[in-house]
Amino acid sequence: MASGRDVRDMLGLPIGADAPKAALQKRPKPAGPSRLPKGVAREVAALYGERPPPVAVYEEKKAYRAKRANTGPAKKWVRQSFVNQARPDGLVLKHWRRKRDPEEKMIGNGEGEDTAMEDRENEEPYVESSGEFLKYNVEPEMPAFTDEEYEAHLRSDDWSREETDYLFRMIKDYSYRWAVVWDRYDYKPAENSSLAVQESTANGEASQALAALPFAQTRARTVEDLKARFYHISAKLMKLHIPEVQMDADQYARYEMLTKFDPTLERNRKTLAAALMNRNMDEVKEEEFLLAELQRINMAANRLDAEREELRARLEAPLPNHQSQAGLQSFTSSQALQALFQQLFQQDRSKKRSSGVGPGRLSLSGHDIIGTPTSAQQAQMSAANRRQSMAQQVPQTPIKNLPREEEFRFNVSTHDRLTSGVSFGSDKLLKMRQAKSNVQTQKIATALQELGIPDIIPIPTARVADVFEGLIAKVSRLLDVRKVREKEEGECRVLEAMKKRLNGDTDGANDDADKNDVKEEKDEIADSQEDGDADADGDAENDEDNDEDNDDDDDDADADGDEDADGEADEDAEGEEEDDDDEDAEGEDDSRVPSVRQVSEAVSTRAMSSVGHKRSASVLSQASNKSSKRARR
Amino acid sequence: MNMPNSSTAPNANEYAGDEVSAIVLDPGYSTTRAGFAGEDVPKSVCPSFYGQIGDDGDSSRYFFGENSIHNPVGDLQIKNPWGSDGIVEDWDTATKIWEYAITSRLTGSKPTDPTKNGLNDANGDAMEVDVEALEQSEKPLEDSPLLMTEPGWNSTKAREKYIELAFEEWGTPAFYLHKTGALAAFASGKASGIVIDVGASHTSVTPVLDGMVLRKGVQKSPLAGNFVSNQIRLSFKQSSPEIPLTPHYLVASKTQVDAGAPAQASYKTFATPPTESFRRHEEERVLTEFKESVVELWPGPGRFSNGTNEEIAKNQPGRPFEMPDGWNQVFSSERFRVAEGLFDASAALTDADSPKPKDEWCIPRLVQQALTHVDADQRPLLLQNIVVTGGSTLLYKFNERLNYEINTIYPSTRNKLIAPGPVVERKYAAWIGGSILASLGSFHQLWISKKEYEEHGSNIVEKRCR
Ligand SMILES: Nc1ncnc2c1ncn2[C@@H]1O[C@H](COP(=O)(O)OP(=O)(O)OP(=O)(O)O)[C@@H](O)[C@H]1O
Ligand SMILES: [Mg+2]
Q1: Is residue A382 a contact partner of residue A581, using CB atoms and an 8 Å limit?
Q2: Residues 109-168 of B with CB under 8 A from A
Q3: Of A49, A107, A130, B196, which is most buried with the most CB atoms under 10 A?
Q4: Can you give the pLDDT at residue A523?
Q5: Residue A94's closest chain B neighbor by CA?
Q6: Is-same-fold flag (B23-222+424-464; B225-347)?
Q7: Spatial distance between the Cα atoms of A238 and A247, rounded to a whole number of angstroms
Q8: Which of A134, A108, A80 is nearest to B442 (CA)?
Q9: Domain limits of chain B?
């Protein structure tokens, strides 16, 4: 037998899923299930509209039907009388059954235990006895008590014997469906209730009397009342019949459950459940919102914890004797590994430093560490933190301390922090020439030219760079001072002109005073040049923004630089603050973010207001101008 | 052997079925449904209205069935045996209508059946014959057990009347009485649930637990199909110009007219015109047509009168309707208004004869009331099985609105509407449930047999059918 595979092989066709795929492609996809019922003309169906037709339309289904197997001549069926064994009254009903054939055995559905009674040829009425559905006739199990037991143990002030019986009957009737029992519970005490209590026999006609007499109900019982009574009795009876010590685990568990039923607790639970259900839309929405919020906070908290953990792992130095104690186990966590990495890196670096050139034991570069995801955070570390962490790290790295003159000779330098990659000393020098604004850069360039310093410094060693840095700092201070002077002079000129216009007499004296003032100032600034440091690394972006703003506002080109410097100082301080905040609060809570924003806003408005203040002061009154000058100083 | 598929009936053993050719009778205000248990639709659906010529008494003649009550015969009055409280009032004629429903299509008519030659026979004669020939075989239900349905609020007296009727008048061998609510839940395959039945005369809400109706929770209100019909009448009357409502029997021929233009039709004239009640009943047919094709419920969100909903409804395309006399119009937002009263009493149209319905009659309030009378633990379960049944729930967008309303009251539970799609299943749910129940083998032991009835009297129905 050749299989399809063999045939394909013989014909040189590729074996595999090619053929079925082609078959699949050939068959067009059925274009959506048509809503039209079968057997209804399209025109008729179009009249339906979107509503169901008021008259039911039956579709004729042409479903597959197997051919009828010929099983001989048609069987006869009769309406067979039968009695149901579950019925006590022997009601005879009729159902359709195969006619019983005396020769053949019963082929029918074989239900029920047929009685031995067999009818022969004569058409004697035969009554089948059906016990097929007997199994569904389930009687609920009920605890039973005798009159003596009731009298001795089960009496209650709240419940009469009649009502207890009524309750038991109801529970039996409704098979412990408490909701139904409570729904149908309608006990009406008999007329002679006081007498009825005395006679302790269970009187059968109680229900009759109850149904007939429209007496005032004693009081409405709640489900919990009913349950409490029933469970109480059940527990007592259980204990009576089986002493506690003899109960097996199951029984004891049940006994415990029965005794522990607390109707008030149950009632409270239900009130709560009902209250929960009856909440209105807003309350549900609020709850949903709160739950979502909670989930969000939880998630954020987890993330925050993880981040903090990581941060701590980066900040904190591993304990000195950590690894020696724990051995290899201590490096199972990523934190420990990170610490190890740090340490190795330090070692490697110091080794390199001491041995000069040559490949290190580990080819590690600073880039590897700095390129980790949290490098940004690390970069943002506050200066204080940085110093601290370095202080902690220093002892563990065995730095060979050279005497000062040797260090100088071998050109050894130590750095607080290394930036990644390679940088040229000339770049560093070039960078120092750049100022925040183009105008400033130009000014620096001209100043340097005046001093006779070439554009390209031939050997940009670190020491040269240091000196150059100092020089640049001085130059920028010089420029600042110059600017201040020019500005003051300009103002003086304006004021003088104003004064001249007002009264021509006094202007000469004033002018002198002003000039003196300016000179004094100049000296002062020159003195303080050493300790001051130009804001070298501020936030470039912010500064530029500020610059633009100021350019827009200012009609006085000279004032530009001045305000620039002011703004920078502010921004710088603020930047530090912000960084600190960031590190603490990141991802912690949204509420923190607006606060940070507020701070920055406040700062910027402060800057703005100071600008505005300065300007208005310069234009309006001399007195305030002086005061502001003093304040600045 | 046939392969079992979706269209073949399941084997009786699979569902514990054992059919004893019981008859299921589900009488309602608008129609009476009867059929054999085990079938999936009632074979016999007869109007519950009957015609009467002549005043009450021996000389009056009765007419039953669709064919005779729509026949414009002089002096024909159309009546209904149901009382305003949703319980049968006129027992004598109710018996005849039900008997007609059973005998006309199910068991075949017996010689003494008053409906067969009832057009000529005076009622009294038929009764006499019955009394004379006290032969079992002459009673209509001689060998069929009978399962009847009753409204959830049926009185003890009425229930006893039912069983007396079944055994004394119809001679049934066994009888059982079940509430429509529980049966409708069975029809949807649910043993527990809350059944919302919007029929013709009454809307009822019935909590059902494990096949048993929780009586304290049963709620009813008169806001149902007839209420909607009256609202439509009011709407027609209050629109300007007034919309004429001419039933079919008055129109001989009609010509096409433009929308809103007065009808141009030739009308029939009668020597002795049918009565006002006949006309009203015929008008009702037109209104039912109107309900089927035009009326729509505002599906939510919000009620129809809320905010801009009316404006939105106005901007939706209208629905045309043509009266039997040719008058026609496109109905815009007014088609929403007429059924709004079912959900929002304050939106109902009113006039001197029809005051504003009570707030607690609206369906959402009924559901709420029903649930407060149910044990708190069962409420979520019931809300997961909200069975919708009754002819008036076929109003367009009814389910959407009901769903919206229930979700507004109980936003925190999982509410699920169970509304069978086919029209038949929606209208005849109670009958279908009865058909399922009475064809079960395990139901045999619940029947009240004639012997038991004779032993205990009619009071037995209270003990056994609960
Ligand atoms: N498609 C439909 N759209 C709207 N209403 C309908 C529709 N079909 C029937 N009805 C209305 O439903 C009502 C009949 O419903 P149903 O047969 O459930 O009532 P019933 O059981 O006879 O009455 P009740 O339950 O009050 O005794 C009528 O008022 C009829 O106008
Ligand atoms: Mg009904």
Answers
A1: no
A2: 143, 145
A3: B196
A4: 47
A5: B20
A6: no
A7: 9
A8: A134
A9: 23-222+424-464, 225-347
H or E stretch covering B79: strand B77-79
At A486, list the tokens.
Answer: 């020019």
Amino acid identity, residue A619?
A: V
Q: Estimate to the nearest angstrom the gap between the alpha carbon of A229 and the chain centroid.
A: 48
DSSP letters for A81-143:
EEEETT-SS--EEEEEEEPPPSSSPP-S---S---S----SS-----EEE-TTGGG-PPPP--
Distance of CA A453 to the CA centre of its chain: 61
Residue B365, min C-alpha distance to chain A (Å): 13
Centroid of ligand 1 to alpha carbon of B32 (angstroms): 11
pLDDT in tens, A164-219: 999 999 999 898 999 999 998 888 876 544 444 344 334 444 444 444 444 444 56
User: Pocket around ligand 1: residues whose beta carbon is below 6 Å from it?
Assistant: A 54; B 28-31, 199-202, 224-226, 288, 291-292, 390-392, 394-395, 427
Which region among A461-465, B174-178, B450-454 has the lowest average model confidence (pLDDT)?
A: A461-465
Q: What is the maximal distance between C-alpha atoms in chain B?
A: 70
> Which helix or strand (DSSP H or E) is residue A372 part of?
none
Q: Answer with the residue of higher pLDDT: B315 or B132.
A: B315
Residue B197: pLDDT above 90? Answer: yes
Atom of ligand 1 nearest to the CA of B48: 22
Q: How far is B419 from chain A (nearest CA, A)?
A: 13
Q: Nearest residue CA, atom 15 of ligand 1?
A: B391
Kind plus residue range of the DSSP H or E element containing A162: helix A161-173
Q: Which fold has domain B225-347?
A: Actin; Chain A, domain 4 (3.90.640)
Whether domain B23-222+424-464 has CATH 3.30.420.40: the reply is yes
What would the mean pLDDT of B10-24 be, rounded to a whole number?
80
* Residue from B24, B26, B29 to probe ligand 1 pocket by mutation (most atoms less than 8 Å from CB): B29
Place of tokens 């006039």: B351
List CB contacts of A483: < 8 A, sequence separation 6 or more: A558, A561, A562
pLDDT confidence tier of residue A112, bands split at 50, 70 and 90:
very low
Beta bridge partners of B78: B51
